[in-house]
Fold these 3 entries.
Entry 1:
Amino acid sequence: MTIRAHQKLLLTGAAGGLGQALRERLKANCSVLRLSDRVAFGVAGAGEEVVLADLADAAAVDAMVQGVQAIVHLGGVSVEGPFGPILQANILGLYNLYEAARKHGVQRVVFASSNHVTGFYRQSETINADAPARPDGLYGVSKAFGEDLSRFYFDRYGIETACVRIGSSFPEPKDRRMLATWLSFDDLHRLVTACLTTPVLGHSIVFGMSDNAVTWWDNSRARHIGYAPQDSSDIFREAVYARTPAPDLNDPAVQFQGGGFVKAGPFAD
Ligand code: NAI
Ligand code: 15L
């Protein structure tokens, strides 16, 4: 059940894949949904506001954040690549976001972190939120920075954050690895709703996954969030096995949780 816990909620990265998936779903969570991205993505509908902002532009981010009670932060570079854009969007941009949140009294943030914070754990390991970060690239490092930055803003200023280490959130799992990492769009919304509405969030790390039979992640440290996934990748297993080759166990992309990200790059800036 979705609770309309906030008057005005900000969704960044609204033009992206997950932003589009959450746009309609999040309207049930608030009276007004403010949507933001740096690229144009259409006009505001009923109950919506649209604010274009580049996360690297502190003044634009300040205006984007003013007047909201909570933020679902999806904006930023979402894959491994050259460091320049990652630095601007995921590091400087996140600092700008938390500074604006501090100035404007935002109480809670749901931060789209990533499984690539821990991508260099092996697929034969099960880890929980206490496992030290082992980023599998500069993108993963930027998300680890976001987890640390948000912890600082909680310890110092009391802004609560859920760092959601999203696995693979797409309409369906695309390959065998995603049978373990898949997060359905409806479960993503359930998880974001739980993060927005649990009474005491503090600073929490939660793995964003559906109820998949094979998993590398243990969410027992996040029980206080109250996330109960209702979907599973298991219904896709047979079809995924039929259309994909048997894995090469010597391939780092098969050995490590981060999959292909562990061997991506280096990229020229
Ligand atoms: P996406 O790449 O489709 O969307 C990201 C959005 O951020 C884009 O619309 C882009 O224009 C915007 N953006 C990029 N740089 C920006 C900047 N400097 N200023 C303002 N906006 C900027 O990514 P997707 O799949 O929707 O993911 C959303 C978030 O979730 C990302 O932060 C990503 O790292 C995270 N995530 C997603 C996963 C997935 O399976 N889809 C898995 C793990 C994490
Ligand atoms: C991510 O962090 C990316 O944003 C997404 O595009 C997927 O590649 C996902 O991880 C994944 O690991 O499958």
Entry 2:
Amino acid sequence: MARLNDNYLKLKAGYLFPEISRRVNAFCEASPEGKARLIRCGIGDVTEPLPPVAIAALRGAAEELGSRATFRGYGPEQGYPFLREAIAHGDYQARGVEVHASEIFVSDGSKCDCGNILDILGPDNRTAIPDPVYPVYADTNVMAGRTGAMTDSGACEGLFYLEGNAANGFVPPPPAGEKLDVAYLCFPNNPTGAVATRAQLQAWVDYALANDTLLLFDAAYEAYVQDPALPRSIYEIPGARGCAIEFRSFSKNGGFTGVRCAFTVVPAGLTAAAADGSRVPLHGLWGRRMSTKFNGVSYVVQRAAEALYTEAGRAQTAALVRHYMDNAAILRQALGQAGLTVFGGENAPYVWASTPGGVPSWDFFDRMLREANVVITPGAGFGRAGEGWFRVSAFNSRENVLEVAKRIAELRP
Ligand code: PLP
């Protein structure tokens, strides 16, 4: 008898986005007029075409594969040196941050990396997850059997929640008097758009070093940080190389959500404890994991990612980010003028707003769908602390964003 992984049965039936699709599809079937007017600001997927440098690099690399002299088969599992060097230099060393090419592991997505990292971590870690946050951290811990049951509200027994709220600006501090083994952090945050200041991140690094906590820092949206005083990498914080892994992605800066390319940084000296108490470098374990369960990102895609680091590539990705950030400013203003409390949208492509009168976020989702024909993301889908809030994604065309702003202004009070 084949037994299944019972941990999957603990998951809430609908992951957030399938449940949104279910409701949107039901609405579209019931209302053809509503369907025709529908604007999706729900899923955080990019809408604008790839930068021209990436297209040219994809074409050039595809041509290379068409000739015996330049054909390439399996590449190095950790990524081609040309891309790892470009990342180490462009994202870190040029900004005065110490990260070496050998510490970079290229992958096909941060979603996979955030989940796969559990392969090299023990089953009994006391793990903290921000609330609200990208649901993948909690769900992958459930799947890997690192939690107890999931309650109706979506909380998992066995996980420690770091509550973000209006009072702390959605940047939860390290918990006083609590000892954590692993803590996920996500800045700029999905869904709130909050970004930790240097002092706030330093507090986390100090806590991690004092408590032997491993920080899993998800910087998928770092390119959206506009304020030069705000950190874009955990490694800008002294001490972070001794306590943090960083996840980054080309999905949101280069528009690679469909192309698929990301990377994880595991500093050479970063260790965790083995069962016998000895300290073992995580770099070697992650390398072993990747070379056993992964065969690398395609050559053409890595060439496209490399192209983003050229001068033209930088200008083109900056223009993409500018486009979405201008959208975010329009949405922020519209939601603020509607009398809602608004966070995010200044250093992140997400605007986070309170529901009118504090109504439950799924009720407001349904109302926006029915009355404005706009798809938003209910805050409750990102954790209990997201209840009473909703996320609007700035990943859209300008035309759609202006129309959404107009419809928000027209909503009945
Ligand atoms: N991390 C966060 C916080 C995200 O919001 C997302 C995607 O929305 C990802 C990671 C996934 O990135 P990728 O497309 O590289 O898998």
Entry 3:
Amino acid sequence: MGIFGKIGAGLKKTRDSILNSVNSMLHSFTRIDEELFEELEEILIMADTGASTAAHICDRVRAKVKERGETDPAKIKGLLAETAAELLRGGQELSLNTCPAVILVIGVNGVGKTTTIGKLAARFRAEGKKVILGAADTFRAAAIEQLEVWADRAGVDLVRHSEGSDPAAVVFDTLAAARARRADIVICDTAGRLHNKKNLMEELAKISRVIERELPGADKEVLLVLDATTGQNAVNQAREFKNAAGITGIVLTKLDGTARGGVVLAIREELDVPVKFVGVGEGVDDLMPFDPEAFAGGLFAEEEPA
Ligand code: GDP
């Protein structure tokens, strides 16, 4: 692993794409001028940062250039990394201090929700915490079974009902089990279908009410799982869920499989929701707490990730 470790490896495709474009663009300039910024903005848009975020980043880099009297195009990459880190910094920590604390995991089917829950469970368990999973995506039998596989893999308990049962009842039983077994962390899966959005949002609200009632005062995180390979579509999903579900953070999966990692910047800038974890592979260890400095460095700094 290089200096950016696993995050660098997970970012390789995005980095190769952005950095190749930035490098070849910079080679064609001998000084920093407005034309350079125009090309830079285009490169950022191509990397799925979104138009308004690209413009904002360029404005900030422009201001730094002016402030510091920079003239050498070679300095642009460092300024980009600095700017991206500033933009991404803040809110990464999970707030899970009560015992038990609850994580509700939401997101549309296929984004990597089950995998993420399994990875989170394994991570908390490795920290010595007792974890219980609630299989509250009762819409699909396969979802329950898959979560069971991950529970076994992570060595944690799972509470499940049969397919089609009331998700809020699963959550109720999971919380009761958590109290009885003195669990530290409860992680609840939720249904991921969006074709009936009103029902889905009502279901999430009902689950939230059960948690408030059964564990008043407990810390709760609502993590939205998004698939980085879907680029701007992920931003749109985040916007919809943010309006309806009170999300506290984002897990961005499949960063390893895409050149669209710039979407992290768009999510932060356009929605003001922190990315808390990133998925960089299918294995149980392939979930990284999001580190803004490492991410920004991995995107724009010179060192090659391993
Ligand atoms: P769900 O329908 O949202 O629960 O999605 P799953 O957890 O079943 O994941 C869907 C697919 O994405 C599976 O093949 C996972 O192995 C894969 N996947 C999930 N997270 C990642 C990731 O971070 N990187 C890669 N490369 N694949 C992932």
